């Protein structure tokens, strides 16, 4: 099969839609969607996605380095695997999205948007994920790793965002996230339109959004920063040792969401404010007409501040630490 990323960026179909090698069979589902199945029976069905936002290229480069040896038959495959490059049209233009933020459209929320490429693509990805997991002929462990990069710099270069989940997280999944070099984990307490919330809610998958560094164009990424994440993915997919855990990730939970309600919205943060910057109780965070957002807890940390989002969307999250967990790990952030 021709280079999968090149095919995706060109919008082309491969000469053949399926094939096999000594370790696996592969099937091209659609542009940017590839299914790989090992010849041997396995117990895990894994979805790995990247490029849901088209300007977040480091995860795409990481994933491509893992997939090409599989397609060449150079590595074994230990899971059923669905590979997704989420937004090919935006990837081609190095833009976050063309018409709307696709990572707010999952779980059927795409129906609330006007017809646009992202809405249609969100529906297609939901369909591909459902078909993939329903194709399992026996009970499988379901994991979904959705890799992103952040718009801003961060006090934590690598962190994970966990969707709302009503049952305990599998211990093996939490151990894997630590081995992947994540410095922090953020736990949502409300449903959302993200790809990981969709896979968790609808398919009971263990899901996490991995945030790996800052959004940069193809070729400008320092992938050495994410060596542990790449090694952990390779171990999961093809075998080998997991990286040693240098330090367990710190834990945070969402305390409140800042939503842009109108064109009057003002975010009272410097454009260079880093993710996980701390704010003291009572600090004015944003205002939108008569609406005011203040820090409510003794200290809250900002995540994903972005005043340029469309009306009705999230302009930032405020977090509080999981004190019981973090006190055992040492000092807090600045």
Automatic annotation (TrEMBL):
This is Succinylglutamate desuccinylase. It comes from the Bacteria. It comes from Enterobacter agglomerans. Keywords: Hydrolase. Its EC number is 3.5.1.96.
